Amino acid sequence: MKGTLVYLLAAGVCCVLASPIDLLKPATTVVEISPRAELEDYRLNDDVMPSHYDITLTPYFEDEDSHQAFSFDGISVMTFRVTKPDVTNIVLHMWKINITSWYLKRASDSSDVPHGVESYDEETHKLTIPVNQALAENVDYQLIFNYVGILDDDMHGFYRSYYKVNGKKVWMASTQFQQTHARRAFPCFDEPRFRTTFQVKINRPATYKAFSNTPIILQTPLSNGRYQDEFAKTPAMASYLLAFIVADYEVNEKDGMGILARPEALNQTDYSLQSGIDLLREIGTWIDYPYSSVPEMTRMYMSAVPDFSAGAMENWGLLTYRESNILYRKDDSTSLQQQRIAAVISHEIAHQWFGDLVTCEWWDVTWLNEGFARYFQFFGTALVEKNWDLGLQFVVEQLQGVMQMDSLESTHPMTHNVYTPSQVSGIFDSISYNKGAVTLRMVEHLITTEKFQNALRQYIKERAFKSTRPENLFEALNEHGDASVRDFMEPWTVQPGYPLVTVIGSKDGYSITQQRFLVNNMNHDDKTTWPLPITFASKEADFANTKPMIVNTTTYKITVTNPEELPYFILNNQQVGYYRVNYDDDNWAKISEALRSENFGGIHVLNRAQIVDDLFNLARAGVVKYDAALEILDYLEDETEYPPWLAAVNGLTTLSRRIHHEDEEKFAKYIVQLFSKAHGLVKFTAPTDEESRLFTYLRINVLQWSCNYGSITCKKAAFDEFVRYYEDPANKVHPDLRQVVYCEGIRQGTDEHFDFLWEQYMSTNMATEQILILQGLGCAQDREQIFKVMDAITSDDIRPQDKNTAFSYLLLNPYTLDHLSEYLRTYYVRWANAHGSYANVASAFNNLLARMKTDEQMWRIRSFAERNEQVFGAAAYNSIQSGVTDYFTNQNFTNKHREVIGGFLDKALAKNNSAGKTTVGILTLVAVIVALLQ
């Protein structure tokens, strides 16, 4: 699964505009509710083992006889056996369904089995059925349930969604069962280790169609005007992989692949159809286990769902997607959106093997599903889209991205105990996804791609139709690598965090030491160590060697002849290893000089990105002084490649939030100066067919930062383009320029310009275009316009799946913070109703507190929370208080580093002024805008 929609605010603006990765975590923080039962009580035992479910569902989209609209009737027949003697209780899951009758029978003759009165635990979702005498082993029994469920609108379980035709809502129903929501559609053993077959029947209205994991084998008209669609039996699989859709959808189908979509969107499915065909073939060939090897899987469908909580979901044979992750049209979607669509499809197709065919035994090892899917999201897509440099993108987006979370004391290891539904949901994070993929990449480079591929082929064949644990993977890797692969890999999976490797030069080489990197506490006494994959380079040719030696000690000496004669000594070629590196002053000086020389001294582009990311974070941690780090990073003025600039944007975004509010103007001038050469390189122009994909992404980053921080040239070009579009809507802006153009149109424009773009949002048929417009609307500076967006977020105008996204774009705009605070303090009840709880109000306030820079801003929120403590409840109130504590921590950081950072900015700007360059800061933008509008 791609996880819930996320634009990683902590990782920076770049991840909003240029990351094709997941949409992974909520834009707002979830308030954890303490478990109210013993942790072990949330898990099922293995006394009972189900083998098959027959499920019949009848959904209602309007009142029908005695049935209420948005409900469904269900009949479930579960076949099971006991696994041991003396079993007198059957315990399984159900949630939010009302059982009207149930029966326990012996399968062979349908005879009743005497039983007691059932009981239900609302906290653990466990239904317990007592029997009067122990059930016999090696005998099939059946539990038959008649029940009623709700087609809710929260995008979980069997839920309702809609799309509009000629302004009228057309209802539909879809599913999202991962992680613990199959139990909302039928009583079941809702844990991934319980693999069973399923046979589904859907009783649908005559005007609808039904779809499930397997094809329809029988269609029967019913007496009430409905039709019953019976689907073929599935392979044995976990309950969370079952799926069904009831909708008036059409299918674009060829070569065993089909895209399901609302009729008006079918013209947006050609790219995803061909991409799916190609990826299913190539990944199946790479793994040497074609998708068709599973007899029941005679075709694959992928469906675009209007309301979908996750980015996508890997239901076996019926993949479901958010519309923006599968619907594409070249003239209305950006290059990055195209890449995101291919990457998400690759991710979900990879799950057909890693997750569906072979399933993690429990969610504590979610990374065995999601780490592989994330790996193939990049390296599987690269099998089909060979010119996108996905391997380069992987390092900055995945490896460097997860390092942010994994450097906090609150992180967790990849293999991590979870019990409650909330804990299970929480582990679907960047540790399971990104770090899982990063660790697999490390192993691949350790044992070579060929051996890695052979090991995975063996692993898939041996574990097919079974559950898996890490030791099963380690055994296959050991067999094809050597006996030490497990010794290398396992510590990275069971230990949280990662090391900082410090390199100190001497007369005969370099000494390296490792210490856990905690960005907010480098004075810790944590003695954790990792097996270090060590490679190093002192000239351009060296960077090609990515096969490491493994260092298992806390300290290590690398012997080098005449190290003082080397131009530099850089550790971790192409950043294959998952660690940061710090050097002594002499080596940092050499690296800095090399970066300013021709061809950047031959330093590989990924190692330049590594240096950029490491320096920003070493400065944050107090390992390197900010002025020293920024002096080296000033080389970026001449950088021409996307990966180092993406790393820089991440670092600069975090730094911008810690700049003292009185220093923001000179920071803005410095940003324009830093990006000026890159701006001249990329130019404000639409991409050509000949330019590389990464150059297009570089342009988007550079133009956004140049415009945001006040480049007159950038702002004028973007606003002129918006005005042209406003005056002639048929002449659209090139998709790859829309983000910048829409933003400047709103930032510099009038209420008429705002209303024009909002009308485009309401009328477009493209989900990808709606996302671009929400980004543009997020650039509003006027209070009334900001309130309009917030009103839309709390209304039906912005779909539930996009509400957090829209809010995240407003948060990225520093001009909105006071207005957002005012809105939330005034309309907090409306916000809670729109998002489902006061926990989401608290999360919104915490996101504001993380970006605010004055005590006055903070006190408004703190005082408001204290006045409304009873309304919010303890958990939400305490969450806001925690946000206030974090605010003071951030302020202390800002004040601690202000003098050093300010001194660097003064020096950099003085150098710039002496060179006769022209920049403009935030406080001068009003004059610029007035001039542009004349």
TrEMBL record:
<feature type="domain" description="Aminopeptidase N-like N-terminal">
    <location>
        <begin position="50"/>
        <end position="241"/>
    </location>
</feature>
<feature type="binding site">
    <location>
        <position position="370"/>
    </location>
    <ligand>
        <name>Zn(2+)</name>
    </ligand>
</feature>
<feature type="domain" description="ERAP1-like C-terminal">
    <location>
        <begin position="569"/>
        <end position="873"/>
    </location>
</feature>
<dbReference type="InterPro" id="IPR045357">
    <property type="entry name" value="Aminopeptidase_N-like_N"/>
</dbReference>
<comment type="similarity">
    <text>Belongs to the peptidase M1 family.</text>
</comment>
<keyword id="KW-0482">Metalloprotease</keyword>
<dbReference type="GO" id="GO:0008270">
    <property type="term" value="F:zinc ion binding"/>
</dbReference>
<keyword id="KW-1003">Cell membrane</keyword>
<dbReference type="GO" id="GO:0043171">
    <property type="term" value="P:peptide catabolic process"/>
</dbReference>
<dbReference type="InterPro" id="IPR042097">
    <property type="entry name" value="Aminopeptidase_N-like_N_sf"/>
</dbReference>
<keyword id="KW-0378">Hydrolase</keyword>
<keyword id="KW-0336">GPI-anchor</keyword>
<dbReference type="GO" id="GO:0005886">
    <property type="term" value="C:plasma membrane"/>
</dbReference>
<dbReference type="Pfam" id="PF11838">
    <property type="entry name" value="ERAP1_C"/>
</dbReference>
<keyword id="KW-0325">Glycoprotein</keyword>
<dbReference type="GO" id="GO:0070006">
    <property type="term" value="F:metalloaminopeptidase activity"/>
</dbReference>
<feature type="domain" description="Peptidase M1 membrane alanine aminopeptidase">
    <location>
        <begin position="272"/>
        <end position="492"/>
    </location>
</feature>
<dbReference type="GO" id="GO:0006508">
    <property type="term" value="P:proteolysis"/>
</dbReference>
<dbReference type="Pfam" id="PF17900">
    <property type="entry name" value="Peptidase_M1_N"/>
</dbReference>
<dbReference type="InterPro" id="IPR024571">
    <property type="entry name" value="ERAP1-like_C_dom"/>
</dbReference>
<dbReference type="Pfam" id="PF01433">
    <property type="entry name" value="Peptidase_M1"/>
</dbReference>
<keyword id="KW-0732">Signal</keyword>
<dbReference type="InterPro" id="IPR001930">
    <property type="entry name" value="Peptidase_M1"/>
</dbReference>
<keyword id="KW-0031">Aminopeptidase</keyword>
<feature type="binding site">
    <location>
        <position position="351"/>
    </location>
    <ligand>
        <name>Zn(2+)</name>
    </ligand>
</feature>
<dbReference type="GO" id="GO:0016285">
    <property type="term" value="F:alanyl aminopeptidase activity"/>
</dbReference>
<dbReference type="InterPro" id="IPR050344">
    <property type="entry name" value="Peptidase_M1_aminopeptidases"/>
</dbReference>
<dbReference type="GO" id="GO:0098552">
    <property type="term" value="C:side of membrane"/>
</dbReference>
<dbReference type="GO" id="GO:0005615">
    <property type="term" value="C:extracellular space"/>
</dbReference>
<dbReference type="InterPro" id="IPR027268">
    <property type="entry name" value="Peptidase_M4/M1_CTD_sf"/>
</dbReference>
<protein>
    <recommendedName>
        <fullName>Aminopeptidase</fullName>
        <ecNumber>3.4.11.-</ecNumber>
    </recommendedName>
</protein>
<dbReference type="InterPro" id="IPR034016">
    <property type="entry name" value="M1_APN-typ"/>
</dbReference>
<feature type="active site" description="Proton acceptor">
    <location>
        <position position="348"/>
    </location>
</feature>
<dbReference type="InterPro" id="IPR014782">
    <property type="entry name" value="Peptidase_M1_dom"/>
</dbReference>
<dbReference type="GO" id="GO:0005737">
    <property type="term" value="C:cytoplasm"/>
</dbReference>
<feature type="signal peptide">
    <location>
        <begin position="1"/>
        <end position="18"/>
    </location>
</feature>
<keyword id="KW-0449">Lipoprotein</keyword>
<keyword id="KW-0862">Zinc</keyword>
<keyword id="KW-0472">Membrane</keyword>
<dbReference type="GO" id="GO:0042277">
    <property type="term" value="F:peptide binding"/>
</dbReference>
<keyword id="KW-0645">Protease</keyword>
<feature type="site" description="Transition state stabilizer">
    <location>
        <position position="433"/>
    </location>
</feature>
